[in-house]
Amino acid sequence: MEAPSTNPPNSLTQSPLLLLNNMSNLMSTKLDSTNYMVWKLQISAILDAYSMIDHIDGSIPQPREFLISEASVQTVNPAFLTWKKRDKAFLTLLYSTLSSPVIAMVVRKSTSQEVWNTLEERIYIYC
């Protein structure tokens, strides 16, 4: 019988829902107006461990939504669809770690990076 692997999960081979469940189970803190530094330490470590911090910090830019061929035909960019699916998983993770008053601060944000940056700007200065 083969021993179970002790390697960290590969974010490229796991389904987004399984990955999200694994990551959210690791968070013990919900962000409120007083604990930004602790929350950011926890979530950054989780995202870094799953090789996903680059999506939220902007290292991986959002791809163009559409591609235009040489014949001027517009098609949906598959890279954008992959990026969008990943981003929605990150948004779900972020929302699950926020208190209700903090979620109210990011209601109109549409990407995980926008939420991340808003939290940095609006909460960090008060901690």
From TrEMBL:
Q: Kindly provide the name given to this protein in its UniProt entry.
A: Retrotransposon Copia-like N-terminal domain-containing protein
Q: What organism does the UniProt record list as the source?
A: Fagus sylvatica (Beechnut)
Cite the Pfam families for this sequence: Retrotran_gag_3
Domain Retrotransposon Copia-like N-terminal spans what residues?
25-63
Q: What InterPro entries does the record tag this protein with?
A: Copia-like_N
The cross-references to PANTHER family, in alphabetical order and at most eight, read: OS01G0873500 PROTEIN, PTHR47481
Domain of life of the source = Eukaryota
